[in-house]
Amino acid sequence: MKDIYILGIETSCDETAASVVKNGRQILSNVINSQVKIHAQFGGVVPEVASRKHIENIALVVDQAFSDAGLEYADIDAIAVTNEPGLIGALLVGLSFAKGLAWALERPLLAVNHLHGHIYANILEHEDIEFPAVCLVVSGGHTNLLLMEDINNYQVLGASRDDAAGEAFDKVARFLGLGYPGGPAIQKAAQKGQAGKIKLPRVFLDRHDYEFSFSGLKTATMNMKKKMEQAGELQLWDLAAEFQQALIEVLVEKSLQAARQYEVKSVLMAGGVAANQQLRSLMEERAQSQNIKVFYPSLGLCTDNAAMIAGRAYHDYIRKSYAPWSLNAYPSLSSW
Ligand code: KG4
Ligand code: ZN
Q1: Which residues surround ligand 2, an ion (CB under 5 A)?
Q2: Is residue 160 lining ligand 1, measured as CB closer than 6 Å?
Q3: What atom in ligand 1 is closest to the CA of residue 12?
Q4: Alpha helical stretches, state H, the chain
Q5: Rounded to an integer, what distance in angstroms lies between the CA atom of residue 250 and that of residue 241?
Q6: Which stretches of the chain score pLDDT less than 70?
Q7: What's the CA-to-centroid distance between 114 and ligand 2, angstroms?
Q8: How remote is the CA of residue 285 from the centroid of ligand 1, in Å?
């Protein structure tokens, strides 16, 4: 069979990314232009600034993806682009560019759901995933526990009722004065402290369902900080460590509970929060004794990238499930 080369384009948030993936598996290039330093000055992503930066960067990033892959534009079989969910202005930059390129090159356009892309990062790197599997999606905007029959079938077992896990990391980091992005900042601070010295709630852990809530934990962390400050004994590192532990314990326990209930042997993790070292090791430690295998992407593929988009799109390409020229972008997740 002929080799298939797909160009992926990702601009859903603050990374302008392009990648060429061969046959849905082999990453030939993976270019990421991060705007994190620009947004860090504002303590979070400024959507208008993100869109403008994508416009400045997109052509250069795509060009780099071709030259890193050692390919010409004409060598590509299809162009894939993230069209939901994300910042609408940011998504539209990638979508418009992808449409223009696909039209000019006379190649099919493929639409990829950003979260399907995050999940696919696991498939890109691991050949031994057994389905059905439970998948924990934890990004800046989403927290979902899914049962996957295969890579095209997702059943939602539960979701966060309020803040997403990454959002909670970002908001708490800001409140604790640890900077942006919050996840890596809290992880670093937590390494200097010890969880358990301060007690924070494991929200919804006692409920035997797959719903999550992180807004209460965020408020409890903020209140604890104020209380400690008033008493003149703020232990910032211990507080960061306890917050991180309280959040990830719930993620780990609910994921493994789902794996037991649905009798699956694989748990996948996807999205930016899956980069968290403590989450990875706690999930592995607790899964091991239950004979469950844990999979997560390498650090570079956990956070936003276009290789996951190009890879995922291969499966739509071979089914000829092309996107229409009228394809639009959507800020929210329309469906799984
Ligand atoms: O998947 P992602 O790159 O973008 C979205 O699709 O939202 O996720 C970004 C989120 C941010 O909230 C960031 O703080 C979090 O992932 N994150 C982490 C870590 N690295 C990134 N959270 C916890 N620990 C980390 N090491
Ligand atoms: Zn993402």
Answers
A1: 139, 304
A2: no
A3: 6
A4: 36-40, 47-69, 88-105, 114-125, 165-175, 182-191, 215-230, 236-261, 277-288, 299-302, 307-318
A5: 15
A6: none
A7: 6
A8: 22
Task: State residue 1's pLDDT score.
Answer: 81
Please, are residues 123 and 35 in contact by the beta-carbon 8 Å criterion? no
Burial degree of 206 (CB within 10 A; 0-12, 13-18, 19+): exposed
Q: Sign of the CA dihedral 328, 329, 333, 336?
A: positive
Q: How far away, in angstroms, is 73 Cα from ligand 1 center?
A: 32
Domains observed in the chain = 5-118+302-318 (3.30.420.40), 131-264 (3.30.420.40)
Task: Report the nearest atom of ligand 1 relative to the CA of 180.
Answer: 14
* pLDDT tens digits, one per residue of 6-35: 999 999 999 999 999 999 999 999 999 999
Point out the ligand 1 atom lying closest to the alpha carbon of residue 165: 12
Sign of CA dihedral 277, 167, 209, 133: negative
Q: What's the pLDDT at 129?
A: 96
How far away, in angstroms, is 63 Cα from ligand 2 center? Answer: 22
Q: What are phi and psi of 267, to 5 degrees?
A: -120, 125
Q: What number of residues does the chain have?
A: 336
Instruction: State the pTM of this model.
Output: 0.96
CB 169 near ligand 1, within 6 Å? yes
- The confidence score (pLDDT) of residue 249 equals 98
